[in-house]
Q: What sequence folds into this?
């Protein structure tokens, strides 16, 4: 069986869910850049940065205990940048219509022309699985949409500063920061990419059939 066929048929450990073995040390530090303190890693690499923010490092082994309520930062970002399904990590674009399938935890306001979200899309093949097995979705009244397009607008991040002894300490936990809020991005450790959905159309909930 090909890897593709296997991931399409077995019940998934979702692509965006992290594993214990993927938690890495984060050697955070501050450096001076353009006259301002900027959060960095002591051994920073160019790929630690994107959209003007430092990003959480994580492993990619998908091994060890699965950390259910959490989100794997780099796989979440990859899903958003490449329009991939949060369940299987393959394309979430419908080959017939070119539109992207999306499950929201609750219905959007009927007049919403755009909508911000950190939840990556879900491919058509995994709509039912996501709707019926994801504890977060099952607790609410999820709604299914197709989206014509979307674009990155911000990051979900923790903010850091230095205490009186020069130690790097978290000052704000999980706040939304716009990609133009440079004064905050300098102190941010990004954990998820926020995108704005455009051209949003409601679709039937396939889990309600029968
Ligand atoms: Zn999928």
A:
């Amino acid at each position: 069986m090909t890897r593709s066929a296997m991931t399409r048929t077995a019940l998934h450990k979702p692509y965006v869910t992290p594993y214990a073995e993927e938690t890495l040390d984060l050697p955070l530090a501050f450096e001076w850049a353009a006259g301002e303190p900027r959060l960095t890693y002591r051994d920073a690499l160019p790929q630690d940065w994107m959209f003007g923010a430092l990003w959480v490092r994580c492993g990619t082994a998908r091994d060890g205990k699965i950390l259910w309520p959490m989100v794997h930062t780099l796989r979440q970002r990859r899903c958003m940048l490449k329009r991939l399904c949060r369940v299987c990590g393959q394309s979430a674009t419908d080959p017939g219509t070119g539109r992207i399938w999306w499950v929201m935890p609750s219905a959007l306001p009927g007049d919403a022309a755009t909508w911000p979200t950190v939840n990556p899309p879900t491919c058509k093949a995994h709509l039912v699985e996501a709707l019926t097995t994801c504890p977060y979705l099952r607790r609410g009244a999820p709604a299914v949409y197709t989206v014509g397009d979307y674009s990155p607008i911000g990051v979900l991040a923790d903010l850091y500063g230095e205490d009186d002894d020069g130690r790097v300490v978290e000052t704000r936990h999980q706040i939304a920061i716009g990609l133009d809020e440079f004064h905050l991005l300098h102190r941010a450790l990004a954990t998820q990419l926020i995108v704005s959905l455009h051209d949003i159309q409601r679709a039937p909930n396939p889990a309600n059939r029968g």
